[in-house]
Please model this.
Amino acid sequence: MTVATALVRGGAPYPELAREAVEQALDKAGLRYANAVLLYLSADFARDTQQAVQQAARGAGCLQVAGCTCSGMFTEDGWVLEETAAAAMVFGGDVFLRPARPGEEPLLSLSVPGALDLAWLESEEARYGAVASDAEGSGPYRVWSSGRVQGNGRCGLIFDGVRLRVGISQGARPLSGPMAITRVDGHDILTLDGQPALANLAHHLPQLERELSRLPLHLFMAGITFGEPEHALEEGRYHLLPLISANADDRSVTVPVPLSPGDRLFWALRQPPAAEQDMRLTLDRLGADTLDAPEFGLLFSCQGRGAGFYGGDDRDLALLTERYPGLPVIGFYGNGEIAYLNGMNRLLQYSSVLGLAYV
Model:
């Protein structure tokens, strides 16, 4: 099996830049042509995407070119954010990438925000991937498959010739243990263990963050546990939700999905050391029962969890390449990560989803 990547920067979104990235990856892999290409392009390619995709297909000598536009992308050789660039991963040998048939999984899933249909997301097949968008969830973003921009704004793809292991790093530091939601009104959490939700959150904050008027809500999360709550945090059986608002009038806290009385919730803090440690644990879990090294990696990271979050260095990418030196890796920064968690596909926030491919 032969897989390789290339990351090419450019001054303007010329279609030839996509072809250059593919040809550099082919040269690196020692291939004359590719079975398939995974191609990510910067957002400024969105105005003339089809020509760039066609150039990539010509350079690869194949029609199966899939990918999306994004605000930032990376390979094992580095990352680019808000800069004109193209990243390509080429597949040769026995590895193929193609549109999935019903019932096949896990599905490499890409979507633009307006195409994120719940029926598609919540299909029975396990999905992994991300939403191609900027931090505000807007912009003229595109998704393509089989060498053509997809009018419905999404795609589901399957790899032949490898088996995928998928891990999730949600990366937040718990501030409390799981507590029972005792009163809730749709998206508004009213009380936890009989105490007003906002007062309960303030009680569990670090000392310097307890002034409610100065709550940095973007740093705090509500974790919803699954199954037996006693060991849910250690075993990663939870789903993190961002806090939408803290409401002083009724002392409630608003989250983006409706919850129910009896659900178990814990408060968590987004923090670089916790995220880095969680990524290490994710890598440990993925490689726990095999001595084989993966053949390539697919990493999908949140806009809020890249180099800016880590103080100038994308530690998720660095940990992966340190663990597996020379591993071909490709990925992009999105606005919502897709992963199969506790029996269903979910749209995550501030997370990293990693797929490792093994023969």
